[in-house]
Specification:
The structure holds two protein chains of two kinds. Chain A is mainly α. Helix content of chain A is 69%, strand content 1%. A two-stranded antiparallel sheet of chain A has the order 1-2. In chain A, helix 6 crosses helix 14. The radius of gyration of chain A is 25 Å and the shape is globular. By secondary structure, chain B is an alpha/beta fold. Chain B has two domains: 243 residues, P-loop containing nucleotide triphosphate hydrolases (Rossmann fold, 3-Layer(aba) Sandwich); 59 residues, Alpha-Beta Plaits (2-Layer Sandwich), CATH 3.30.70. Chain B has eleven helices and 13 strands. In chain B, helix 7 links the parallel strand 6 and strand 7. In chain B, helix 5 runs antiparallel to helix 6. Classes of the chains: A mainly alpha, B alpha/beta. Chains A and B meet through helix 1, helix 3, helix 8 and helix 15 of A and helix 3, strand 5, helix 4, helix 7 and helix 8 of B.
């Protein structure tokens, strides 16, 4: 309905009148680089993710408590296995050690499991929210790693008390704390298990670039991982050659390895070697994850978006 | 130097053709049939610093695909583009710091957090100095009237409020180029007007360059001096908005109010659209308006006359339609 001359009055000032201001927006300088700046940026991401995490704290607490219920049945099950076998040791594990091992794998998984990471990446790809990482000057993998650190910090902080309670209740299964050096190795193995878990699952998520529907694949991978990481039972319990094969695979570092470090079943040079191997696997998965991301982006940019 | 330069930009997608029936579906498992879809077909244009340009076209014309190429999300099949003097799909860090892409249908803010937290995250991601950040944020929330809502979780905001927050997030780092895809989609008239005003004010203060797509002609009229019309992937028109009316609006609507009842011999002047009591609306060829008006005045006593262009929507629909016919004929 607007007559043509009405247009000029309504529209914004013509580009020419805005011209003197064109110098005003400063050309944004490249940001300060280097590890300190990057760390600072990611600390902020961690902080913000943390407050996002706390939005659903009651759900969170309930989930943490419910996680322990199956433990009771597991303890009773192993008790009857040992009693019926009539042996005091199975594959080098005494009954008390077995229970301690199963409790400790919970700690391992607290670090290495990444609920929703692979599925989230696949969803970002499918629904196009991946765009944000391509448009904004932020790296997707770095961003996800930071927010995952935040999630873990929140999770570990919040489940500290329930875990303490549990371990106090179950203290008779343990021979007290190991020496400081072993504790340090244990801590290192847990941090590395976080990295192995993160980059492994992120790599799985990258499959979403090639397949739209990844739910069933993820289900298979996660179920398999639950078993071959030693979360269900110590890998030593399996017959040869399976036990040796699984101990050569990277998945053991997500549950089995930290637990046996704590139980002092791996010591000395063997321990150092395994820590180095664990680090190597973390790097291998990191490279794999980066490579898949790069390839995936190429494909995404050509076909989708 | 132009902010955006596109030359022969073309994007072809391969679309899997799913056939009906079980047998055909099984065949599809080993032998897939693809159809090539040319979403954008050799379009070229240049946008100078400070321009506000509307990108018009019916659904599926290739607008969003073009914006995706210009923001570096996808590679073109052929052709070239330079945006802010970068090749967008190389995604240089410095390039990403200087533009924003706002998609009306996509959410960039964190759903469960107050918008203020997302803004903080942007501050970190774009390394915006604290003082500049606080100043820009204050101005923008004031401008859009959402200063009180930034501490509320984004999921609790209305669509209009959320869109305003999205816009603030997109402007915080002071982009030199703003690409907007349907920024007012689904918003009520008041929210639309607020978004338009914000964009207009921001443009006049900062001289930012904008390229926007919209189906609302109100947005286009309020914001843009220049329009690009694409249809079926190809460029149909590039020029001032008023030029579209000149070029494609061949007729004008003359609304007459007579002293007495409207006479019934008006048909010879043009197409009578309405005749009721003293009122009559006639559609007249643009070039003959003055001639016919004086002829009517010679014969009848008039109380009032207005001359209007047909609604912009109607003209644009005609442009789209003509482009379709040309395309089919070719």
């Amino acid at each position: 309905m607007t007559p043509p001359d009405g247009l000029a009055a309504q529209t914004a000032p013509a580009p020419s009148s805005a011209a003197p201001l064109l110098v005003a927006p400063p050309l944004r300088q490249a940001p300060p680089r280097g590890p300190i700046a990057t760390l600072k940026k990611h600390t902020k991401i961690v902080r913000i993710s943390l407050s996002e995490r706390m939005t659903y704290r009651s759900d969170f607490l309930l989930g943490t408590i419910l996680r322990f219920l199956p433990l009771v049945t597991t303890i009773l099950l192993w008790k009857s296995i040992y009693e019926s076998s009539g042996r005091s040791e199975l594959a080098g594990f005494r009954y008390r050690e077995m229970i301690a091992y199963l409790l400790l794998t919970h700690i391992s998984r607290m670090f290495s499991s990444m609920p929703g990471l692979a599925a989230g990446i696949a969803r970002d790809i499918r629904e196009g929210t991946l765009k944000r990482y391509l448009i904004q000057p932020v790296d997707m993998i770095g961003y996800l790693l930071s927010s995952r650190v935040a999630h873990k910090v929140a999770y570990i902080t919040m489940s500290f008390l329930p875990y303490m309670g549990l371990f106090v209740l179950c203290r008779r299964y343990f021979d007290g704390f190991p020496d400081a050096l072993t504790m340090a190795a244990y801590a290192a193995s847990l941090v590395l298990s976080f990295l192995v878990g993160f980059f492994f699952e992120a790599s799985v998520g990258m499959v979403g670039f090639w397949f739209l529907e990844v739910t069933s694949l993820l289900y298979i991978v996660m179920t398999l991982n639950f078993f071959i990481s030693g979360h269900m039972l110590p890998l030593d319990l399996l017959p040869q050659p399976w036990s040796a094969i699984l101990k050569a695979l990277p998945f053991q570092y997500m549950a089995y390895f930290p637990a046996v470090v704590f139980l002092r079943k791996i010591t000395g040079w063997s321990l150092v070697l395994h820590l180095l191997l664990e680090l190597t696997w973390a790097i291998v998965f990191m490279v794999l994850c980066r490579g898949l991301y790069r390839l995936g982006l190429k494909r995404y940019s050509a076909y989708g978006g | 130097m132009a902010i955006i330069e596109a030359a022969g930009l073309t994007k072809t997608y391969r679309v899997f053709q799913k056939k009906e029936g079980v047998l055909a579906a099984l065949r599809g498992l080993y032998k897939r049939e693809y159809r090539e879809v040319r979403a954008v077909d050799r379009i070229s244009f240049a946008i100078e610093p400070g321009e506000m340009v509307a990108f018009l076209g019916p659904n599926g014309a290739g607008k969003t695909t073009t914006l995706k190429m210009l923001s570096g999300l996808i590679y073109p099949t052929s052709g070239e583009a330079r945006v802010l003097d970068f090749v967008p799909w190389q995604r240089a860090d410095l390039f990403r710091r200087q533009f924003s892409l706002v998609m009306g249908q996509k959410n960039q803010l964190w759903w469960d957090l107050p918008a203020a937290d997302s803004f903080q995250l942007h501050r970190e991601i774009y390394s915006i100095p604290q003082a500049e950040f606080a100043k820009t944020l204050g101005e923008l929330t004031e401008l859009l009237g959402v200063a009180k809502l930034t501490r509320q979780a984004v999921r609790e905001l209305s669509l209009g409020e959320r869109m305003k927050m999205e816009l603030i997030a997109a402007l915080l780092h002071g982009p030199r180029l703003l690409l907007l895809d349907e920024p007012t989609i689904g918003l009520d008239v008041v929210a639309q007007a607020a978004i338009q005003k914000c964009l207009r004010d921001y443009h006049s203060q900062r001289g930012v360059t904008m390229l926007l797509t919209s189906h609302y002609m109100r947005d286009v009229e309020a914001l843009c001096d220049r329009v690009l019309v694409i249809n079926r992937g190809g460029m149909v028109y590039d020029g001032p908005l008023a030029g579209i009316i000149e070029k494609f609006g061949e007729s004008k609507l003359v609304k007459l109010q007579f002293e007495g009842p409207a006479p019934d011999d008006l048909g010879r002047f043009g197409q009578v659209v309405r005749r009721e009591g003293p009122f009559a609306d006639i559609r007249i060829e643009r070039s003959r308006v003055s001639e016919i008006l004086s002829a009517v005045l010679d014969r009848h006593a008039l109380a009032d006359v207005t001359v209007e262009d047909p609604p912009l929507e109607e003209i644009i629909a005609k442009v789209f339609e003509e482009a379709r016919l040309d395309h089919d004929a070719a």
